[in-house]
């Protein structure tokens, strides 16, 4: 292949890529760097005067802020549970739905449906259900387990959030995994069966390794999504009860928009971004390496 | 077929471009068109923000009626319940506060920043302000001699209770002391009724409990002033936990999962006998079960042993600040219309809330019981709350949720309240 | 052979149960839209006694649904057109090049998935204000193109890599210019991926709440999520019947779109994301 800057191609590349590059840089990267600058100030979002305060924001969030570190911890817990649950379920569903069942298309549609609903609406629907319907439902079905204090018990609310966000995104990840399964060469699977391996071995020794690239994508998407959840939690609990479900996004939202500390809020957003970068980078390295060795 | 599809898409794209462009031109034309009329009568738009869901229809009708009489004036009402203060703050930071907005804490301390940066203006000269009684206007006057809020609606806070359920449980009259309340609670429970319908999910319902129970303690010894000076502590108010614990231990099974409407539903279905709210809740109940409102009354929370102290808490409900100097006259005219003009009838029919302008209306039994107690001077009026830090009700709400959910102890809760007040003092 | 049938049936039954449970929340949203307030509050889980259409009428008028819908439609449609166009073009060139600059550009674009919108939000609003893009449909469209293209560039780039270079080669020999090659030869072949991009990014833009929230102030420019959520934090917070109905009406367009295009999703995702 040719190099990007090759003279003959440069003009064309400029024409084809230039516009989007400009728009993207102007409307995303430039604000990001501006935000980075503001994270070193105590700007309140309005004042034309901006005071540079160096690393004070970053120091404060880790030493003096009594709510930030707990919110960070909560974010991690939710992310770990979410990523695990979403990917495992998505994989199971994908395997089940790539068999020859007749109604598979219908099931696929129903599992994917939540993703079509906006995250805010998703939070509201579940809030409505978990506060108004569960008692009734538990009576009718006799399953007392349903009648928990899903959103009121500070110890359970984290799991409720995981449940809701899994419901939302599992269908989407499942679709990616279905695509991955369908693109595996059938002959490899058949060869395995002829050699006498059962479903379990077929999965772990043949299918999974071949799907590693897709798994990488699925895990990457679910990690970056889980660490950034905002809309759903906002409408589901608003951070409550008390602060029991306040994740980093909610925490910095309050700082920036309720307490008018835009500089401080942006600094927290930068920290979160760094965390996401590090985690996804490590994840990519790990799953890519796995894919390479297994193949 | 493909070509047809392609041309269809191109046509759609073109059409939407034209439409989008056309819309903007139409908007511009409207502005220019009105610009000409502006020479004749100045075109004024007033934005009015508030947080009370029960008066939305009434406010819209008032606006429409006024606009019919004054076609050059447009009034845009906006009701925001959750995050009212956040929305207001973002309008504030965009230097674009609504012309008329309800202040969630219309006290001097909370409004000081607005006054100092000239974001709200004195309303002393408005006609309706001149109509207020001495008592009311002196309570509204700040230390600089000016009045910055137009009082609109008052309310009371206390316990709305179902007299029918009380009678069925063998309680003849509403408890006047705390020990009587304990007895009543027991009788209700024995009769299979949930004493209190709690709305733990909506923190604001809990926050108001704190300062209602604390009213007497708050009013004593200049609590607010001493807190600002760093000379007091919420430990002095431990007494409020008597009632708060009674409430906590005698509500429905999952109080922290029930929101405001859920608690209203419990009360409307006569599963619970008491709702600690204000008359707005009675309106919500009447949407669901008007017959229950008929047998409901309201009394003050009996949180001490002294019946004199346990009175109904009378409060501001919607007090407006004005952020437009230019159109102050129009604002004054609008309120004049509401209080003295044709708006008065609409107020009577639709708004139906206690107000400082003597506008009578057909009241439901709950409001009637409030008015009666007002007449007989059996109410306690807010003295502390208005002097608390800005957004104090939200702080109280979060802290109460943590306490009710068992996450913190009493002393931890008090310490948090102290810390938050100090933080506000530092800023 | 019989083993396959047994496990297929088991999988089918299992997925059937799971899918029904999965559908429950949507089911409750559906049935409660057709009940009056009292029924919604008192008998939330029950099937409606009679089908009550008053909620839909009230939300349509009260929330000015048609206006919200038109705004959402215009913004989504034009943004998607821009995204598809720019991303396919960029993806095409990036897939036919290699080297450090290409790699850099790809990583540069992927930042949009990593950097949370909140980090960019406030300075973005400031920038938009400087360019008079606030409170305008065009402002939103440009931002959506900026935010929605990177992922599409990735998908297109991966997909085009699977197309044999021979097609372009013969066209170049015939003396065709780059633009002709792209639009006449390459673009038509991108249909599956274009469908995927259209669906995914339409979902994102149609349901986006935060960006319109902080940039749109005029009532006549509001999009569906903004208009609905506005009502939701306002009047509908206490009128659950209207709240639920408004949520249904906000979600319906996307649900309908899905029914029409669902078969393209799998094939599109397959061809784009697997061949990295």
Task: Note the main attributes of this structure.
heterotrimer; B: 427 residues; D-Maltodextrin-Binding Protein, domain 2; 9 strands; disordered N terminus; C: 276 residues; mainly alpha; MetI-like fold; 13 helices; globular
Please characterize this protein's 3D structure.
The complex is a heterotrimer of chains A (295), B (427) and C (276). Chain A has 295 residues and is mainly alpha-helical. Chain A has one domain: MetI-like (MetI-like fold). Helices cover 74% and strands 1% of the residues of chain A. The relative contact order of chain A is 0.13. The mean pLDDT of chain A is 84. Chain B has 427 residues and is of the alpha/beta class. Chain B is globular. The N and C termini of chain B lie far apart (69 Å). Mean pLDDT of chain B is 83; it is low at 1-7 and 16-40. Chain B has two domains: 44-154 and 317-363, Periplasmic binding protein-like II (D-Maltodextrin-Binding Protein, domain 2, 3-Layer(aba) Sandwich); 155-314 and 382-426, 3-Layer(aba) Sandwich (D-Maltodextrin-Binding Protein, domain 2). Chain C has a single domain (63-272), classed as MetI-like (MetI-like fold, Orthogonal Bundle), CATH 1.10.3720. Chain C contains 13 helices and one strand, in the order H-H-H-H-E-H-H-H-H-H-H-H-H-H. Chain C has helices at residues 2-33, 37-42, 54-62, 65-95, 100-114, 117-130, 137-160, 166-173, 178-189, 191-207, 210-215, 224-232, 240-273; one strand spanning 97-98. The interface between A and C is large, with 99 and 99 residues.
């Amino acid at each position: 292949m040719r190099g990007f800057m090759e003279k003959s191609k440069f003009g064309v590349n400029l024409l084809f890529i230039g516009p989007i590059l400009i728009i993207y840089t102007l409307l995303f990267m430039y604000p990001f760097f501006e935000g980075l600058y503001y994270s070193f100030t105590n700007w309140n979002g309005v004042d034309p005067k901006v005071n540079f305060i160096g690393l004070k924001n970053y120091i404060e969030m880790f030493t003096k802020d009594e709510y930030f570190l707990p919110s960070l911890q909560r974010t991690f817990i939710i992310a770990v549970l979410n990523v695990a649950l979403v990917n495992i379920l998505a994989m199971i569903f994908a395997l089940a739905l790539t068999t020859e069942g007749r109604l598979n298309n219908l099931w696929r549609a129903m599992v994917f449906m939540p993703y079509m609903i906006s995250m805010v609406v998703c939070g509201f629907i579940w809030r409505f259900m978990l506060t108004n319907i569960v008692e009734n439902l538990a009576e009718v079905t006799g399953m007392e387990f349903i009648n928990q204090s899903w959103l009121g018990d500070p110890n359970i609310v984290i799991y409720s959030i995981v449940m809701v966000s899994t419901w939302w995104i599992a269908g989407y990840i499942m679709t990616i995994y279905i695509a991955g399964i369908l693109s595996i060469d059938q002959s490899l699977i058949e060869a395995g069966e002829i050699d006498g391996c059962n479903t379990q071995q077929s999965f772990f020794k043949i299918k999974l390794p071949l799907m590693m690239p897709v798994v990488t994508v699925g895990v990457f998407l679910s990690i970056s999504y889980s660490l950034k959840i905002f809309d759903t939690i906002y409408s589901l609990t608003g951070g409550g009860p008390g602060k029991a479900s306040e994740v980093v996004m909610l925490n910095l939202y309050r700082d920036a928009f309720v307490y008018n500390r835009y500089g401080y809020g942006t600094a927290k957003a930068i920290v979160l971004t760094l965390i996401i970068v590090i985690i996804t980078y490590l994840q990519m390295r790990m799953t890519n390496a796995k894919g390479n060795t297994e193949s | 077929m493909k070509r047809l599809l392609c041309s269809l898409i191109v046509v759609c794209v073109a059409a939407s471009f034209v439409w989008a462009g056309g819309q903007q031109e139409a908007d511009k034309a409207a502005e220019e068109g009105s610009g000409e009329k502006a020479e004749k009568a100045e075109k004024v738009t007033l934005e009015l923000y508030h947080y009370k869901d029960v008066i939305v229809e009434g406010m819209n009708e008032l606006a429409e009626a006024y606009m019919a009489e004054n076609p050059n004036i447009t009034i845009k009402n906006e009701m925001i319940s959750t995050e009212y203060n956040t929305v207001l703050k973002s309008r504030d930071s965009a230097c674009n506060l609504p012309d008329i907005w309800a202040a969630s804490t219309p006290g001097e301390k909370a409004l000081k920043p607005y006054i100092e940066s000239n974001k709200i203006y004195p309303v002393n000269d408005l006609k309706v302000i001149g109509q207020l009684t001495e008592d009311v206007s002196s309570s509204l006057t700040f230390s600089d001699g000016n009045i910055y809020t137009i009082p609109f609606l008052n309310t009371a806070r206390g316990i709305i209770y179902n007299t029918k359920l009380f009678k069925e449980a063998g309680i003849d009259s509403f408890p006047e002391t705390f020990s009587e309340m304990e007895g009543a609670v027991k009788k209700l429970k024995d009769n299979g009724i949930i004493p209190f319908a709690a709305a733990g999910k909506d923190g604001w319902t809990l926050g108001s409990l704190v300062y209602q129970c604390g009213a007497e303690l708050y009013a004593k010894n200049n609590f607010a002033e001493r807190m600002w000076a760093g000379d007091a502590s919420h430990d002095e108010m431990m007494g409020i936990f008597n009632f708060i614990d009674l409430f906590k231990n005698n509500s429905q099974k999952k109080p922290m999962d029930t929101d405001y409407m859920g608690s209203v539903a419990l009360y409307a279905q006569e599963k619970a006998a008491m709702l600690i709210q204000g008359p707005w809740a009675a309106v919500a109940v009447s949407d669901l079960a008007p017959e229950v409102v008929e047998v409901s009354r309201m009394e003050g929370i009996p949180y001490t042993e002294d019946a004199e102290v346990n009175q109904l808490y009378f409060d501001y409900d919607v007090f407006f600040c004005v952020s437009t100097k230019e159109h102050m006259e129009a604002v004054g005219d609008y309120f004049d219309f509401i209080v003295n003009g044709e708006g008065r009838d609409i107020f009577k029919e639709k708004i139906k809330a206690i107000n400082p302008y003597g506008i009578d209306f057909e009241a439901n039994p709950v409001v009637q019981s409030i008015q009666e107690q007002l007449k007989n001077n059996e109410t306690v009026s807010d003295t502390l709350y208005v002097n608390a830090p800005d957004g104090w009700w939200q702080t109280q709400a979060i802290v109460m949720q943590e306490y009710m959910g068992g996450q913190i102890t009493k002393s931890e809760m008090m310490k948090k309240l102290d810390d938050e007040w100090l933080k506000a003092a530092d800023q | 052979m019989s083993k396959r049938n047994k496990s297929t049936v088991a999988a089918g039954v299992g997925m059937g149960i799971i899918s029904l449970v999965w559908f429950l929340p949507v089911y409750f949203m559906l049935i409660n839209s057709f009940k009056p307030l009292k029924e919604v509050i008192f008998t939330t889980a029950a099937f409606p006694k009679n089908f009550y259409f008053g909620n839909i009428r009230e939300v349509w008028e009260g929330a000015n649904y048609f206006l919200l819908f038109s705004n959402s439609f215009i913004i989504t449609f034009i943004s998607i057109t821009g995204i598809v166009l720019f991303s396919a073009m960029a993806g095409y060139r990036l897939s036919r090049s290699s080297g450090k600059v290409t790699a850099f550009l790809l990583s540069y674009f992927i930042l949009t998935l990593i950097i949370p919108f909140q980090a960019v939000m406030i300075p973005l609003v400031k920038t938009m204000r400087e360019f008079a893009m606030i409170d305008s449909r065009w402002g939103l469209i440009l931002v959506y193109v900026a935010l929605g293209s990177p992922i599409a560039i990735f998908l297109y780039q991966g997909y085009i890599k699977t197309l044999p270079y021979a097609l372009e080669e013969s066209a170049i020999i015939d003396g065709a210019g780059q633009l002709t090659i792209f639009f006449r030869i390459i673009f038509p072949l991108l249909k599956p991926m274009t469908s995927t991009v259209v669906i995914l990014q339409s979902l994102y833009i149609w349901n986006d709440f935060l960006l319109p929230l902080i940039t749109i102030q005029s009532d006549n420019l509001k999009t569906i999520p903004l208009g609905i959520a506005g009502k939701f934090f306002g009047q509908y917070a206490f009128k659950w019947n209207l709240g639920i109905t408004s949520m249904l009406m906000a979600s319906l367009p996307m649900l309908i779109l899905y029914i029409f295009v669902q078969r393209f999703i799998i094939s599109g995702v397959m061809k784009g994301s697997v061949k990295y």
